[in-house]
Amino acid sequence: ESKDIDNAMHLFSSITNKSNYMYTVMFKGLITNNVAEKVLDLFDEMKIEPNQFNLSTLFNACAVLNNNRAMKIGKKLLDEMPENYRNDNITSNSAIDMLMKFGDVESAERIFRSIKTKDNITYGAMVKGYVGNEMFEKALDLFEQIPLGLTNVTYTVVFNACAKLCNDRAMKIGKELLAKMPENYRNHNITSTSAIDMLMKFGDVENAERIFRSIKTKNIITYGAMVKVVDRDTITYNAMINAFALNGMGTQAVELYREMPNNLRDHVSQICVLNACSHAGLLHEARTI
């Protein structure tokens, strides 16, 4: 809450000898509370040299803000960063993420090449950065070079890249990746939803439905991925309306019902939408249906 942030800032300002660790804690707290701009304000007042932990968190704040001030400070910090910090993966990974958010792919690639021992997060930041900059072929090129075991984040990002490309290469990579994905990742909603979205884009509705059915705890995004098919049928619409109802999203259920072509509506559609209205207290909407 803003009051708590103000209290924390006031307490922090009262400390005479602030350490790098204290700055890192404050920076992280401000980012978590969605006030990254205050991180840069605090940095401007900083009387000690930032260490690699400060820099990593400052790069994160600049990536979140992604405005002119953040770009100026982020790039200046990077230019002045001591050489020994460049071998610190956490700091370099944060710098890559920041530069990718700025759209400065070339500089991100330069840092990536300079890292002697790349880890999963390094590769993940690059692949995610390429996808964010709509360089999907480059994302797949780099993915094919990853010598390490993949994290669920990497799976998610690669599925997204394949979905966007939707060409023969993307279909081959995406389906092969899905076939060898570890079982425990299949229970990860974000990863499974990305896989569903990719298969839907490929037109492979059957496999998308198989994954959908296997997800134990479905959320609204999972249902949304399933409904992103051009030829929606009655069952798809009803499943989505029901999902909105179960998640207390009555207004969205009504909107989708009204969007549903008359020839696809059946008694189940009406029960689902009225159930949604009942849960959400939408009496007027219920009367008009």
Account of the protein in words:
The chain is an all-alpha fold and 289 residues long. The protein has helices spanning 2-14, 20-32, 36-44, 52-65, 68-80, 89-102, 105-114, 120-132, 136-143, 152-165, 168-179, 189-202, 205-214, 220-227, 234-246, 250-259, 267-280, 283-288. The protein has 3 domains: 1-117; 120-230, Serine Threonine Protein Phosphatase 5, Tetratricopeptide repeat (Alpha Horseshoe), CATH 1.25.40; 232-289, no CATH class. Helix content is 72%, strand content 0%. Helix 3 packs across helix 4 (52-65), helix 9 (136-143) crosses helix 10 and helix 11 (168-179) runs antiparallel to helix 12 (189-202). GO terms for molecular function: RNA binding. This is Pentatricopeptide repeat-containing protein.
